[in-house]
Amino acid sequence: MKSLIVYCSSHGTTEKVVGILSDYLAGEVVSVDLKKDNNIIDLENYDIVIIGGSIRAGMIQRRIKKFIQTYHDELVYKELGLFLVFMREGDLAVEQFNNAFPQDLRKNSAALGLFGGEFLVSKMNFFERQVVKKVDGITTDQYRLDLEAIREFASRFNNLKMMV
């Protein structure tokens, strides 16, 4: 089976997660960073489609939203996975996840993932650093990726592949 991971990475954390996820997934995996690649994607070439991004200012990236709107009618018929790279936890994380992805896609997904995140203050611009400092009190890089959640997410798809 062939998997597609579509994502958007601002400071590299989501890209890092996609690399880890790709290593855990069985079979051929193609990844597309929508920030770098605006080509039309033929979803017919893929058995599994995984979509991921991060939350910035309470919203998922515009390119992810546009991808979902453009391909929505095809996505509902795919083995689908959705994930966020996000430093928040608990109810706020669930709320942000639900706001990021349409309900019908969440319901039809084989896997949903909250993978933790990173605050890469060293890669942020002045405005971003000020916001992170004011809102979260963070002034240095912080790392909190959930590798176990990424492994469990991948295993759901690997188990699907075994059933075929």
TrEMBL record:
Q: Which GO terms describe its molecular function?
A: FMN binding; menaquinone-dependent protoporphyrinogen oxidase activity; oxidoreductase activity, acting on NAD(P)H
The Flavodoxin-like domain is annotated at 3-158
Signal peptide feature range: none
**What Gene Ontology biological process does one annotation of this record name?**
heme biosynthetic process
Q: Which PANTHER family match?
A: PROTOPORPHYRINOGEN IX DEHYDROGENASE [MENAQUINONE], PROTOPORPHYRINOGEN IX DEHYDROGENASE [QUINONE]
Name this protein carries in UniProt: Menaquinone-dependent protoporphyrinogen oxidase
